[in-house]
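User: Quick sanity check before I run a bigger batch. Here is a single chain. Can you write out its predicted 3D structure?
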Amino acid sequence: MMKVGYVQSNPVFGNVKRNVTMMRRMLDGTDADLIVLPELFNTGYLITDFKELAEMGEKIPDGYTCRQLIEAAKEWRTYIVAGILEEDQGLYYNSAVLIGEGGYIDHYRKIHLFADEKVFFAPGDKPFQVYDIGKARIGMMICFDWIFPESVRTLSLLGADIICHPANLVMPYCPKVMPSRCFDNRVFAITANRCGKDVKKDKSLSFIGQSQIMSPEGKIIKRAGERDETLDMVLINPQDARNKNIENLNDLFQDRRPEFYKPLLMSQEELAQIKPATAISQKDLDSFTKFSL
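Assistant: Done. Predicted structure follows.
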């Protein structure tokens, strides 16, 4: 068995030290094996100019936030997945770090950017990866990655038992859809969302909360409310995610037919070259052509 959890927080935009300090207080004394924190938990989300990126972006793993998380993971003897704003060689990434008792392990850069993220962030350039943390194998994705079924499927095919999903959700769909993603792939998932608002003079965003932990059967094991900051933890058995049987004669992954899924790997330009088959028989087509003339 394994104790896993999420933090649902309401960061103050731009106040990195305050946000990291509050997170450490919320987690103080935790005995979880794995904790997932929200997307951009250390900075807030509503970035509106490049100056903010330059002020808040951090190196991984040497920046302030990572160093604090490394200390916390060592103190609590746990693994942490956390969404932070990364700076690397003048580019900025919406990233998630994986940190354990022994320190920094790796990080993932968000592949599917949402809305104005396309203006400020570079698209992720690191492939989906799965990590063995002893009691489970975990993979990371970030927020809008959820809307692409390929994200969870890829991590599941790579062997993930648990999908760690830092998020800053503003639309209502993800909490409803993610249980289906878990059922489709027979995996656990932990969506750590934020709550509250980011407010600027001419713009604001409200976040929906509803962080949740889901089972391989697509059941919601634990779900937070929409407004409150909270730390929730549950016990799970990661081995449940390794049984891909739907019934005796059907294995979810062994029954796949990849030779028929080639369009999934095609670009939009390549797909545009494929003409749909006609639903009209040649006899009917000839008859229609003659009548038309």
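The CA atoms of residues 48 and 202 lie 10 Å apart.

User: Great, the batch can go ahead then.
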